[in-house]
Amino acid sequence: MGRLNPNQLIVEGSDDLFSVKGLMRARVVWPEPKENAPVWIDAAGGVEKILERGYLDTKLTVRGLKTLGVILDADTNPQGRYESFRNLCSGFFPDLPREMPTEGLIAENAEHLRLGLWIMPDNTSEGTLETFLHFLIPEESATIWDHATKSVAIARTLGASCRDCHVPKANLYTWLAWYDEPGQNPGTALTRKILDPHSPSSAAFVQWFRDLYQLQEAILRA
Prior knowledge:
This protein is α/β, with parallel strands linked by helices. Helix content is 38%, strand content 12%. It has two domains: 7-127 and 198-219, 3-Layer(aba) Sandwich (Rossmann fold); 133-185, no CATH class. The longest helix is centred in the last third of the chain and has 16 residues, at 142-157.
């Protein structure tokens, strides 16, 4: 990709990548092509990959890196996610707090390397990216959302094999399937304002992102 972007973000998968990009493009200047973006986003291929011993070490020692952000799903154990992350990064950042900050983690070490972590949906609750995105559904779509969640629940009683942990994703994609065109990903839904990128529910995440990468308020879109 040529010269390393000093601002790097690691997410679990492609849905996370396009969702973050779709949200932040509405909140800060995010030029094309992607080499000119203020942050380079990389989908690792799963939480297990990110929390594999040696993975973050390798990322943190890349020459030219200024800031490394990481976004993980809490799933059922947000504190456990943080403890795993903290243990892996403690060699580079020995002063990380014992508890995950509710506003998102931002740390800087003696070498002026910056590290950030956001645990979806809100750093303290169980859930996933889809839990976070649910709160970006516009008020006028609430009735359709309620119908989508009831449809998923009924499908499960009829034998649909959706596991409990995947219900938030099933709810979101069922709701998205009823918009024109069906099958679009959350990133596209944010770009098209089907999901509201300016929802107050996104404010804490957007503030963490801007603070981590030191993106000035002056570059927010009008």
